[in-house]
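Possible race condition, two jobs.
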Amino acid sequence: MSILGPKSCDQAYSPVHILYVIDQLCEAGGAERALLKIIQLLPRERFRCSLITFKIDETLDLFRELPCPHLVFPLGRTYDLNALQTARKIRKFIRDEEVRIVHTFHETSDLWGGLVSYMKGGPALVSSRRDLGILRRPKHNLAYRLMNSRFDLVLTVSEEVRRFCIRMDHVSEHKIVTLYNGIEMSRISQVNGLENLRSSLEIAPRAPVILTVGHIRRVKGIDVLVETAAKVVREFPNAIFLVIGRNSDPVHFLQIEARIAQLGIRSSIRFLGESENILSFHTMGHVFFLPSRSEGFSNALIEAMACGLPCVATRVGGNAEAVEDGRNGFLIESEDAASAADRILRLLRDPAAAKEMGAAGRKIVAEKFSAEAMIGQLVQHYDRLLEWRRN
């Protein structure tokens, strides 16, 4: 049977219209990238997509040319005259455009977008839950418990997030399933210009490179990376730690810079900002380090694994669902810079073992976390939901 699932007669001639609603498109984060990838890879003969967001930064390359028609409805307060007008516009769009599924991302879209989409004879409602509630306030927890009965399906990015939603949000187990992020393995190949990239960054040809990818904010643990780097460079003084991601917390970043100066390791850590060329960085890396304090499921981690990089990651969120400690990477406890440095040093001392671990990581991504697997499973979930609604 095809992974795309069965087609009904009406689907063969009229693609199912799916409306995606996301709070904002203002940073190239994991949820934003995953959403755009879903829209790009869904079979167009089966589905047509639209997108609504409440805020967008079109100066970012990722959002300059979106893969489907989109609408921007600026939303200041959740409950005011503008919010009511926006609700009417969304409901009208759903009716006029015959939307069959509304799929929401993030808190405002889950709680507010889901509510206005709920109407008699209206579309099926799907919610994507992608973290362990790190951005929620108490009012969000209450609202989720009140709203969850309205969703027909809840998709979580890891089993850890699934357990969190059942425990904290009281989501019924029968309507919540895990859908892992997927990597397009066809895009993962050796990238030319490796030496040019090293040269442009003024990194010596044999210098060990330890990478991390993530926007700079406290939850990402870049301050722990700094403490780890100070221990690693004692043995490998030419090692370079590269941090790829936007500075999303300037106050926290100032604290990080002050600590780097105090430790005397300014030449060992580079902050490169955002990049759409992450695969090229992976080709010159020796180790990928993910020091996060919380994760739903890390796109950055499985992308590094797909590139064959041995990984050291904190045992938080869904990381342990991708990394088997000692086989295809190392898991450490959050905040433990000493253990992180120990594992990174093990990999730098033994390049053959590091290469073997990287190959094992690439294999598990190909088997379990490919984009093809993600889209195939998502289509099956959509098909089952539509069939259930018809009956």
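Job #2 (started ~2 s after job #1):
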Amino acid sequence: MALDIYVGALTLYYAGKWENAGQRWARKHGATYDIIRPESVDDPPDPKDVRTVVVAWRDALAEAVRDRSAGSLTWDETSLTYASERPGWDGFTSLVLWAAYAEHPELDRPLRAVEEYQRDPAYLRSTAEGTRSRYSHVIRDIEFWLPWPFDGTLVASDPLGNKVGIGSSVILARQLRDLNRATWNVDDATLEQWREDVPEKGSPFDALARFGFATVIDPAQGAADICLPMKLDY
């Protein structure tokens, strides 16, 4: 199962009016790309109906976190601008663990991707109850990052009623820059090269973490800059 990152209005996302990295590649190369999901996509929802649900959800969530936010609690659900990247599960979870091991340098980093990363000792230390992680919006179990700088992370219902972790793209981008300075300390040109060097299955942990970082930091900063949500898609 692939893991993509989507940045844009959630109306487009839930109405299926966007392309993931695999679809984009297939379109450019004249290939076929089929998405198999547990829910039916035979009758895609009307974007107007989707927007009504998303806006109500957005406004209710804004009210719930109003006292924790320093910014404007809104974004434009009529926007047609979106972007997507594909860090893949190994790239994304290796980035999560890279941040956890940066907080716990006394532990030895793994050599390869960790399949059950939420059982990893560094991850467990960084997410233990009462722990204040420097990379909380990177490490914690988050599915949505919203374009508001608010304290902490939270668990709330998404527009479909599922309980999910929610963070801030503003803080995520800041924490990723801090992680880069604390570990790799590389420039934009190097990050561009990392994005192009897609690691194969079974690649070393550090190569996977680099690719994950390079494919997450741009969407995170972009989401903050254009004030639109960022979401995991799988």
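The chain has one domain: 4-233.
Logs attached separately.
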